[in-house]
Amino acid sequence: MLASFLEKLSNYIDFTENERQVLKDTVKSVRHYEKKGVDIISIGERPLGVHLMLKGWACRYKLLEDGSEHIMAYLMPGDMCNVHTTLLKQMDHSIRTMTEATVASITHEQINDIIDHYPRIARALFWSMLVDEGILREWLVNLGSRSAEASLAHLFCELLTRSRAAGLTQDNSFCLPLSQAELSDAQGRSPVHVNRVLKKLRNDGLISFRNKRLTILDWEKLVQLAQFDPGYLHLERYVGDVVPNSRHGKPTCRAERNK
Amino acid sequence: MLASFLEKLSNYIDFTENERQVLKDTVKSVRHYEKKGVDIISIGERPLGVHLMLKGWACRYKLLEDGSEHIMAYLMPGDMCNVHTTLLKQMDHSIRTMTEATVASITHEQINDIIDHYPRIARALFWSMLVDEGILREWLVNLGSRSAEASLAHLFCELLTRSRAAGLTQDNSFCLPLSQAELSDAQGRSPVHVNRVLKKLRNDGLISFRNKRLTILDWEKLVQLAQFDPGYLHLERYVGDVVPNSRHGKPTCRAERNK
DNA sequence: CGATCTGTTGATGCTCATCAAATCCAGTGG
DNA sequence: CCACTGGATTTGATGAGCATCAACAGATCG
């Protein structure tokens, strides 16, 4: 049940058998959601515990006054929904299922217990929060500065990498149980446009996307198109203090570079 | 020196005199940056300590391969630059000054000391990280789902609220030491377009922006235009468990709402 | 089997980027 | 006091990217 969660956190620390057992003992309360489109947590709520995706996908989203909405994160097995609420009074966004899903619940007391008694696990949980924040920043770049094509390519690179980190891939393919409309809600673009971009990626031989399964046919080209640099996912165990692969350069703002 | 920092965190907890003193004693190492446009931390680095803005503004940003860049956060006095690196191997983005600035540095050991011995302060630091994450999500909505006008209006609402929380406002005005080009780099829009939107906001009597000072002339209308709901800044002390002001409704994706 | 959801394609128009040039400043130096 | 300068802002003209609307073809499902 916990496989993806353990697999994911193992990218940060090697668990001892004891720590593994602690986590397994902690996750007892499990709830199954039969349908997609059901809120796991709603905005304004203060959930009783922290929710953990075991099976299926979910998304963070916000409704806008005009009835439209924006998806701010996709949650796959191994991802936590709301570590936030250990401290915050209430959720500032909602989370709902995108497929049939199984979700575990860990009480805030249990979380605090872990923080007090198992600092290594606590650090791993904290690490996963920081990764989530990195993902948010990269999505910001997707929406603000990348073309629709690069943005979608970048998303696919990220999702493959995250799926692999959670042990959910087969070669270069993974389960992507989303409709084009659901992709468009995260991409900040219309479903029609996402459709056309998908078509282009397919025609160029970069991906195939059938039966809720995305296969990346040409990883190198897709990475190039997306300018994908996986550093923000912080998956490498120990890279030392040297600077690998980073892009340096003088800061330039839009005005300057338009000269 | 620490005024803004203490003021900001005071939105989450009431400090005891002792806690106040602990923080003051912690912040010893201070560095001054004479010029704007200087990196405080560069991507790939592993800084020795956590940096804290005392005076002046900075921004998180990422360079893209084509030489363009994207600003992912504005940092004002009281904001911390890199709590991240307490755990992460390296920075996944850069931070640079946008004005002359004074920055304090707290070693990771000091941070860990505080976490061990002053849990209330630790919680406050953690809280501020969660707020940063909330801001990121809201910026995502700005870029993905709001018009240029609403997005800029939303940014101004946020910045006034944050400035006020750090004790940096006078009535409805605050110091906004950014050029239109620097605004555009965060808004994901061209400087020319930002200029036009600013003009419209001014003409409509919503704001005035002169001498690096932004005054909000009609808060109500601006909030309305921006659909600004300050919940994501988590500034209210105790709102209880009830759901105030939240928007509910059936989930709808772009496809559905286009019917 | 119709009903509903998802994907596909075409036509049309708006938002916004881009390029270029004009204007407005705060210095700076004669 | 004025001319000169470099930066930021403003304005106009043109076009690209993408939204929107509409229609249809396959799937999927009760």
TrEMBL record, chains A, B:
Gene Ontology MF terms: DNA binding
InterPro entries in UniProt: cNMP-bd_dom, cNMP-bd_dom_sf, HTH_CRP, RmlC-like_jellyroll, WH-like_DNA-bd_sf, WH_DNA-bd_sf
Keyword terms of this UniProt record: DNA-binding, Transcription, Transcription regulation
SMART domains: HTH_CRP
Source organism, top-level taxon: Bacteria
GO terms under biological process: regulation of DNA-templated transcription
Entries under CDD domains matching the protein: CAP_ED
Protein name: Crp/Fnr family transcriptional regulator
